[in-house]
């Protein structure tokens, strides 16, 4: 049987990435993270699409070279179709379509969220290790999304909880901005937390029914808490930065894991994975592992390099779409908003 070589392309936000997956094993994964947004305190869509335009040809070329694969040996081009910033998605989509037209290689449009979930199945060339068994619960926590999903197989899901406003990553980033920290704030809060007392300050917890989340209230209560304290101590933030970071992080972790506990009780599924940028958070990882030991859950933590946006995860979805003959026509268009649905 022929080897299935998938070229993955990711450009939904501020990372330009390309990867090559050969029969489900990762041969290369090149990521160009756009540093330009740091000084603006958030991703500037116009600058992001421009940077993708500058990077994409070089990134794809490097991914093919690193894998030692010729473009003529690629079986399908899997690109991120959505959700994300439209201008950013357009660059990856247009590039993939151009490459498809010029080579005759079929196209597969991928949901970025699907990619974050299947990141758990990524294995390097010579690596073999445990992957989640179906069905498992995936807590998908990124800068744009927070969802609890039952993953039934590679292409089948049921979303049982989601945020009704901000995503967990947004809560990290927005609160970090209020503290005067650079973008993205999540990793900075994580780093500062290691030297802080997580029980020092308490912030509001949302009271939302069922398995849904809400994070917009936390941002507001955090802001007012700081304003109140700055009245008495103008250096309140700098004097307490580590404790503020640790308490904020602990609050977000508790909110995330309270609902995850509920989801386990409700579904009876005890195999759990976390994915998306926030799944890199050390507080979340440590507490999940601790709770898993107590409750006898089986937990899957993604490798840090596959938590944030990358094309390897897009190629992994592409591989399973290919096996199931799911292709896109050349008139495929990107979608800024795109729900995660079974295929
Ligand atoms: O998955 P991702 O790269 O992009 C989206 O699809 O949104 O996630 C980016 C988000 C940002 O909000 C960033 O602050 C957060 O992931 N993040 C973290 C950590 N590393 C990245 N949040 C908390 N702790 C971290 N260590
Ligand atoms: Zn993402």
Summarize the structure in words:
Helix content is 42%, strand content 19%. It is α/β, with parallel strands linked by helices and 343 residues long. The protein has two domains: 5-122 and 306-323, ATPase, nucleotide binding domain (Nucleotidyltransferase, domain 5, 2-Layer Sandwich), CATH 3.30.420; 136-302, ATPase, nucleotide binding domain (Nucleotidyltransferase, domain 5, 2-Layer Sandwich). The strands form two sheets. A five-stranded mixed beta sheet has the order 3-2-1-4-5, with helices on both faces. A five-stranded mixed beta sheet has the order 8-7-6-9-10. A hairpin with a 4-residue loop joins strand 6 and strand 7 (146-153). Helix 5 packs across helix 7. The longest helix has 32 residues, at 236-267. The two termini are 25 Å apart. 5'-O-[(R)-(carboxyoxy)(hydroxy)phosphoryl]adenosine is lined by residues 13, 142-144, 169, 172-173, 184-187, 190, 276-278, 280-281, 308-309. Zinc ion binds next to helix 3.
């Amino acid at each position: 049987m022929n080897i299935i070589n998938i070229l993955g392309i990711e450009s939904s936000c501020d990372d330009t990435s390309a990867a090559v997956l050969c029969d489900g094993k990762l041969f290369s994964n090149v990521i160009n993270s756009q540093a330009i947004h740091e000084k603006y305190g958030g991703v500037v869509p116009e600058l992001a699409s421009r940077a993708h335009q500058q990077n994409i040809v070089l990134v794809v070329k490097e991914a093919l070279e690193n894998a030692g694969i010729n473009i003529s040996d690629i079986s399908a081009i899997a690109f991120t179709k959505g959700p994300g910033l439209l201008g950013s998605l357009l660059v990856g989509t247009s590039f993939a379509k151009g490459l498809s037209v010029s080579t005759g290689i079929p196209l597969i449009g991928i949901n970025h969220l699907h990619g974050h979930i299947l990141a758990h199945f990524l294995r390097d060339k010579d690596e073999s290790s445990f992957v989640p068994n179906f069905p498992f619960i995936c807590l998908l926590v990124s800068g744009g999304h927070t969802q609890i999903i039952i993953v039934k197989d590679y292409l089948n899901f049921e979303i049982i909880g989601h945020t009704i406003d901000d995503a967990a990553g947004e809560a990290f980033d927005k609160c970090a901005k209020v503290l005067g920290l650079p973008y993205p704030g999540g990793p900075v809060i994580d780093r500062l937390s290691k030297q802080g007392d997580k029980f020092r300050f308490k912030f509001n917890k949302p009271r939302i029914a069922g398995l849904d989340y809400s994070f917009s209230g936390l941002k507001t209560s955090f802001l007012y808490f700081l304003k109140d304290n700055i009245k008495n101590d103008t250096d309140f933030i700098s004097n307490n930065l580590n404790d503020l970071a640790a308490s904020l992080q602990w609050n977000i972790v508790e909110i995330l894991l309270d609902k995850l506990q509920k989801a386990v009780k409700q579904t009876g599924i005890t195999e759990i994975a976390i994915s998306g940028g926030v799944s890199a958070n050390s507080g979340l990882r440590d507490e999940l592992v601790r709770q898993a030991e107590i409750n006898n859950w089986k937990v899957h933590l993604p490798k840090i390099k596959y938590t944030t946006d990358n094309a390897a995860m897009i190629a992994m979805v592409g591989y399973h779409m290919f096996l199931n003959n799911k292709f896109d026509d050349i008139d495929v268009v990107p979608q800024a908003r795109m729900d995660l649905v079974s295929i």
